[in-house]
Design brief:
By secondary structure, this protein is an alpha+beta fold. It contains three helices and eight strands. Belongs to the polypeptide deformylase family.
């Protein structure tokens, strides 16, 4: 089981490594690692398990955050109704994701982004594409997939894909004023 002790921080130089393409078909080792990464995300969003194992909640995790320089990432974003029933979820275990299209329209998360590899709370807006199209191999469905992501999901996907190129969210901050509103951008609550 992956816990916070397995996740490297931005003080570790490996977080800046550019991850390598993963050979397909997926090895058992890589598939198992992706499933462990997904388990971390689900456990981290469960209040009891998160507290018991001291997990920081996360919606995405890239293999490089475990010190593994492979182009693999997981995303788990559930949506719930007022009664707490899950209505939808984005659940992906992606290998070799590639950005194939995006809108010029920018967007940013009003509350700012956070990262399991960045222990301190750094405030600033991260300009990203409001909509992206990504192609990848998905280990959950065992298929090549083409994903169209909008809004919060789009932000998460771009955040995790940045990790594969050694980029951290705060690298995108406006250097002079990190909290300066981004003109004409869609604001994601």
């Amino acid at each position: 089981m992956i816990t916070m002790k397995d996740i490297i921080t931005d003080q570790d130089p490996r977080i800046r490594e550019i991850s390598k393409e993963v050979e397909l078909p997926l090895s058992d080792e890589d598939r198992n690692k992706l499933m462990e990464m997904m388990e971390y995300l689900k456990n981290s969003q469960d209040e009891e398990l998160s507290e018991k194992y001291h997990l920081r909640p996360g919606v995405g995790l890239a293999a490089i955050q475990l010190g593994i320089p492979k182009r693999m990432l997981t995303i788990y974003i559930p949506d719930y109704d007022e009664e707490g029933n899950m209505t939808h979820k984005e659940e992906w275990a992606l290998v070799n994701p590639k950005l194939v299209a995006y809108t010029q329209k920018e967007a940013y998360i009003k509350a700012g982004e956070g990262c399991l590899s960045v222990p301190e709370d750094l405030q600033g807006y991260v300009p990203r594409h409001a909509k992206v199209v990504v192609e990848a191999y998905d280990a959950i469905t065992d298929k090549q997939v083409k994903i169209t992501a909008r809004g919060f999901f789009s932000m998460c996907l771009q955040h995790e894909m940045d990790h594969l190129d050694g980029i951290l969210y705060y690298d995108h901050f406006n250097k002079d004023n990190p909290l300066a509103p981004i003109p004409n951008a869609m604001v994601i609550e």
